[in-house]
Amino acid sequence: MVVRTSSSPSTPTPALQADPARALERLREASPLTQCITNAVVTNFTANALLALGAAPAMCDIPGEAGMFAGIAGGVLVNLGTPTAEQRDAAREAVAAGTPWVLDPVAVGALPVRTALAHELLEARPAIIRGNASEILALAGLGAGGRGVDATDTADDALDAARELAAHTGGTVAVSGETDLIVDAGRTARVPGGSALLTKVTGGGCALGAAMAAFAAVVEPFEAAHAASAVWAVASERAASRSAGPGSFAVAFLDELAAVQPHDLVGRVELTR
Amino acid sequence: MVVRTSSSPSTPTPALQADPARALERLREASPLTQCITNAVVTNFTANALLALGAAPAMCDIPGEAGMFAGIAGGVLVNLGTPTAEQRDAAREAVAAGTPWVLDPVAVGALPVRTALAHELLEARPAIIRGNASEILALAGLGAGGRGVDATDTADDALDAARELAAHTGGTVAVSGETDLIVDAGRTARVPGGSALLTKVTGGGCALGAAMAAFAAVVEPFEAAHAASAVWAVASERAASRSAGPGSFAVAFLDELAAVQPHDLVGRVELTR
Amino acid sequence: MVVRTSSSPSTPTPALQADPARALERLREASPLTQCITNAVVTNFTANALLALGAAPAMCDIPGEAGMFAGIAGGVLVNLGTPTAEQRDAAREAVAAGTPWVLDPVAVGALPVRTALAHELLEARPAIIRGNASEILALAGLGAGGRGVDATDTADDALDAARELAAHTGGTVAVSGETDLIVDAGRTARVPGGSALLTKVTGGGCALGAAMAAFAAVVEPFEAAHAASAVWAVASERAASRSAGPGSFAVAFLDELAAVQPHDLVGRVELTR
């Protein structure tokens, strides 16, 4: 039996509306358990960013525990920044649990171990892939990868690659840049704004991937990705306005993540088909 | 031969007095070498907290070095937050050295690898066990464990479990909560106060376990545990009073740890039999 | 055939001049990719310090990737603070790439695994060795090593040991202390100043080693080492002047690293033969 709802003649095309405010409300009500298998550089900042946002972080990343934990977590992040052998096995366990999960393919393309793992994990269909343009291009097989976490392309350079990956996984792909770009099978969102200081602090992007995993516990992946981007844009702008440099920016960013209110996100996401 | 001192008719019951001020003086004089085998999320914050307190941290956590190092350290912390295979072996080495050590059974109960290790390590008799109520209940076999580092019970819910564990190990058990609870075979201490912001920063509790290990190098375990709790209460209250959110709180907390003076701790610990 | 240049009668002895200002200019122009195989405690602070300085950090530290990455990096840091088995193999790969690399022999002498590795890696001729006096003495076989990262000797105590090591490797040796000491085959530099608060924050010295690796990508090793020390002295003095304790100092130090200008370094380095 096939039930057709969204495309039945009597159903008008649903209005294309983003509601990051509702997404943030739901996240703060649920405080979703968010599992992070992430790199050693950013694990502290990521946990603090999730706590400030209102989620409950758990950095459970060893084999024999990661899969079981993913079964009770609301969202899972797999970030390939420093993929030790134990983390690679933990990631394999975790993505098999059926919980919505985010792939952050740090420096994929340039480096063989993580590149092979990223392609293997893709088959477990990440709900969201988040990277910079170089990484998304490399993951789609259309680019050579960046130098580590540096993006050498703009987000829009990766639009076709993002669409291709989204078609392949059936999920959402988010490209971080001056304007963040988020696509799924039929929709495109753009989130402008934010602060360049986020690129002067390690973990700004990695923690954004974790935030997407937290949001994916409470709303569908496309909405999760753009809601997280909208929070990042607002909090980073406010933090930048009262910072003397990258050190004080990172501190202020955590304060502002905790202070962001749902209504601050209204109008932050531009949706198109 | 049995020597009975505390209950001999001619010996008056010793006055039940806490002296966290003296404990902090001794810690600052000795600057005890404090070895931490701890999780990847909090290792930086823990080392900075120990330095601010006046101790000398050393995160020596690989097999082949951890046991030898524990032999020269004044106190040892074993925190099970992200227990890699190497850390598990390092912990086994370190607890065999005979140095007073603290067990922080993060998320025990819920996850099999660390739960098995925690039970194994218990047989090496930790001088202090520090956890939230869910963890203490789970370790005593009386609860199912929390969701990661979240406490889902209050400290007093774990009073019986803490007493049972203390009787089993012959050591001290500290339960973190709105009011911290510390018990050993015959004594109970409570440390009220502190700030809820400590739970909004990753590592607040983990670093407290490290502080207990540092204090255990200079005073007996029961006193070490409540002195550390008293320092945490004072520093977190002061930090909270001048913070705009969790980011600035974590920074201010380190400043306040360095600024706490022994006399600030007077009256902070409530002792009962 | 032997070509003698520096000591030929017709060539005047080159003026002994330090130019850390030019070194910083070149670093900021090139933003050199700087690979760090470093300890878990300081990896976040190190990455943020490199970003603030103007370099591009990449914490690529697993076997199968580290060697390849070292081939494209401009400078490499190998810090032995928490040397897991994977990091030890990664270090062996990385130092074979031919890229200028810095050895930071944390706590060498006292602990067997890292001590054996340090001696093995020495044969790959580090461009720069950076440590405190105890570590340099221990590495040269002239001392017993410190207690972890604590220096128990002054920089000048290690002058002979530093010269011996420099002769052995053909590179530069930097000894951190109240006045930093930098030597190579024929030259000695001293960088006074800085702030003692740097020793109250974990990673102050480790991140300095990373900065030397970044500078080594753009200038020769001896200049790289003293230029990095000069930046550290200026930034730490300024940060200390506006800090309430070690927590706020660490934050301010990152801000000041980003704010340091080349002309601020003029006169900071004292050179002698």
Description:
The structure is a homotrimer of 273-residue chains. By secondary structure, chain A is α/β, with parallel strands linked by helices. Chain A is built from ten helices and nine strands. Chain A has helices at 20-30, 43-53, 66-72, 85-95, 112-122, 133-139, 159-169, 204-215, 221-241, 246-259; strands spanning 33-37, 56-58, 75-79, 101-104, 128-132, 172-176, 180-183, 188-191, 270-272. A nine-stranded mixed sheet of chain A has the order 2-1-3-4-5-6-7-8-9, with helices on both faces. In chain A, helix 3 (66-72) runs parallel beside helix 4 (85-95) and helix 8 (204-215) crosses helix 9. The longest helix of chain A is centred in the last third of the chain and has 21 residues, at 221-241. Chain A is globular and about 40 Å long. The first copy, chain A, starts with 19 loop residues before the first helix and ends with a strand. The model of chain A is unreliable at 1-14 and 146-150 (pLDDT under 50). Chains in contact: A-B, A-C, B-C. Chains A and B meet through helix 2, strand 2, helix 3 and helix 10 of A and helix 5 and helix 10 of B.
